[in-house]
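User: Hey, quick favor. My workstation is busy. Could you predict this chain's structure for me?
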Amino acid sequence: MELTLRCKVKQGNIPLDLEKTIRVIKAPAEICPVCAGTGWKTVPDDPNTPGHKKDRRVTRCDCQLRARGQSLLVAAHIPRRYEHCELASYTPDFPGAHPSLGLGHLTASKFVEEYDPSDGTGLLIIGKIGTGKTHLAVGIIKELILSKGISCLFYDYRELLKEIQNSYNAAVQTTELDVLRPVFETDVLVLDELGAVKPTEWVWDTVSLILNSRYNDNRTTIITTNFEDQPAAGVAISLSAARAATRGETLGDRIGERMRSRLHEMCRIVTLDGTDFRQKLRSASYR
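Assistant: No problem, here it is.
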């Protein structure tokens, strides 16, 4: 392609029109050898199929799925700290590992394999700090994005609440709906560290809005939490004075019994037991 440039200059008091033609070389775009750049590939026909006809059938080419996968991966907003997390890199068989870690990894892998967008059932991953809850959750959505082209979104529970609160600031152009729309509409939502914010009426109302909206729309939600899946203090079974004094906060305390019950309808529960794997790694590095 040739491009002609024209400009006016002065030589002394005499105006001159200058014209320069340059050749622009455009690098050819890489063309997929399978679909020849059309985005569609022919599906092999089986002549043994009942009612066989010699009509060509086509489907989306793998190059389009890869391109969509990379785009969806960026849109998922996975934090840089967790970008490396994959199901294949989750190691549940280190020395002293609790058997529940291997079972959790198996459950996560089957979840991806059997994922059905029309089902809507998610996962509630419960465990102490350092048991790999977030690693599994991120690994799941990365597999869903790259292998199945499913739209996913990652949100830290605390950061999501901050963004919603910030939208109330008159100086900010983002509205509450702008923040919540992708949370409501994404096929799979990861809500990390549920219950990490001290509960207030506003927090409970916000959690209810998010979970109920996704439940009613039959969308899949994957949740991680450090809190035990036990009732709130007001509805818990009677405890001795000694046990009551040492009782830790539960998921019921942090999100309310109504929403805890809703989670049981929305999700299968995965419990990860064991000690903080990250502390073990740090300790081992100093030996």
